[in-house]
Specification:
The complex is a heterodimer. Chain A is α/β, with parallel strands linked by helices. Helices cover 48% and strands 13% of the residues of chain A. In chain B, 53% of the residues are buried. The chains are: A alpha/beta, B alpha/beta.
């Protein structure tokens, strides 16, 4: 019989970012979520598409009903968290950029990916780190 | 005259979403910022009062990534007057075989596609702005 390594099992955790189009913070939430999913917690972090979630995507909604979800919002409107809670139930935890980054930067004009600076990439790393902390806590508590 | 509202889907899972996001941004920031403005789709979706008010009865353009058309559906549900809806997947179809990138980054071909889509959207913005003037 093949060994099953229970210790290596990592519960999948959904990450839903606001990706707001009117401010830089939205770009940063999107990039950080992608970074977590592709580089930092691949296979464990599953990105949920907010527009699809809200437009009736059953797959996204069911995932959020059955697995823990971390919302990543740029501002205090908490659009990603509110949407998840409206359609699928409470989020496990949330990351809000204005809680730990300069709001003036978060609310500044959004820029193309082409024009992002080194400072922006540092912010993405910081946000991604926060998301990972929440994922690890959710995973440990599950 | 109020500016034409441009909403990109920004879907996170695939390259289509990034193409729509970058195309929308190019239109609102570079090609015709005096005629149109970006709308934060998540805010409209969550029925944020300010965002809804800015959409209701207004001329809108949706820039979606995939055939699910989430941006167009959301604008319509919020009472927006959706005069045109674009899909990044259609732009990609015209470049079959070319690698546009992923949901994280665009290749040179992907940037070209985003530029092409942005040109189409900006032509529509100009046309609609002219009609409304």
């Amino acid at each position: 019989m093949a060994d099953i390594n229970i210790g290596a099992f990592k519960m999948q955790i959904g990450v839903i970012s606001c990706s707001g189009e009117e401010m830089l913070g939205g770009t940063l939430t999107r990039m950080a979520t992608r970074k977590v999913m592709e580089e930092l917690r691949p296979g464990q972090a599953i990105s949920l598409c907010l527009p699809l979630f809200l437009a009736g995507g059953e797959e996204e909604r069911n995932f959020a009903k059955n697995f823990p979800v971390i919302s990543v919002d740029a501002c205090e409107k908490h659009c990603a968290r509110k949407s998840t809670e409206k359609y699928s139930g409470r989020v496990r935890d949330c990351v809000v950029l204005t809680d730990f980054l300069d709001p003036e930067v978060i609310f500044s004009k959004t820029v193309s990916m082409k024009d992002l600076t080194e400072e922006h990439y540092h912010m993405v790393d910081k946000i991604a780190e926060e998301i990972c902390k929440k994922i690890d806590a959710a995973s440990a508590g599950s | 005259m109020s500016k034409v509202k441009v909403a990109a889907c920004s879907g996170i899972g695939k390259v289509f979403g990034l193409l729509s996001r970058e195309a929308g941004l190019k239109v609102t920031e570079e090609l015709c910022p005096e005629l149109c403005e970006a709308v934060c789709l998540a805010r409209v979706m969550t029925a944020d009062e300010d965002a809804k008010e800015s959409i209701e009865g207004k001329t809108c353009i949706a820039v979606d990534g995939c055939p699910k058309m989430c941006a167009a559906k959301t604008l319509e549900a919020a009472g927006g007057n959706v005069k045109a809806a674009f899909r990044a997947v259609d732009t990609m179809r015209a470049h079959r075989g070319e690698d546009a990138g992923t949901g994280t980054y665009l290749t040179e071909a992907g940037w070209n596609m985003a530029g092409e889509l942005a040109e189409q959207v900006s032509e529509k913005v100009k046309e609609l702005a002219k009609e409304e003037a």
